[in-house]
Amino acid sequence: MRRALDNLYRLALWASALCLVAIALMVGVQLAARLIDGALALLHLPRTDFVVLSLNEICGYLLAAASFFALAGTLKAGAHIRVTLVLAALGERARWYAELWAFGFAAAAAGYMTGHLANFAWVSFRFHEVSPGVIRVPLAYPQAAMAIGALIFTIALVDEFFIVASRGRPTFRTAEDAITLGKEG
Q1: 101-155 pLDDT tens trace
Q2: Where do the structural domains in the chain lie, given as residue ranges?
Q3: Which of 27, 34, 117, 134 is 20 to 30 A (C-alpha) from 83?
Q4: Distances, alpha carbon 61 to alpha carbons 58, 128, 143, 157, in Å
């Protein structure tokens, strides 16, 4: 089970990275086309006027998908912002309760968000809603990507909740302790 969950988080991070690569490629193509048109204009040659249609809109959808797909992996890596200053002031038992409560509450909130994102995507799919741009993107696709990312994040929060309940420490606490010790030393 542990291997399957870790692979799920890794897969989500790869999906996030692919979304960012797609953004970079599309923006790069658009930038190259503008540079070529600028060079052609300097040479008094006809411009190509090449444009990636709906670039801003599609990049926005990809950025939203990348952000949601990255949530679980960054949580498991300990890269989310946490209030370690408060947690460090607590004793081990109080810190255990605080972390257990935080992961439980966060899992419930993420589950609630996931349900609404999934419903949002389902309604868009049922009513064939499309974006208003030049390229009419079915809105269910970017919304479904957000819902899937939120679902994986919810799974990661529940996973951490059970890890804290059984082991007493989140998986990334060792990294936090090392950073804290590094600042003191």
Answers
A1: 999 999 999 999 999 999 999 999 999 999 998 999 999 999 999 999 999 999 9
A2: 2-184
A3: 117
A4: 5, 17, 8, 24
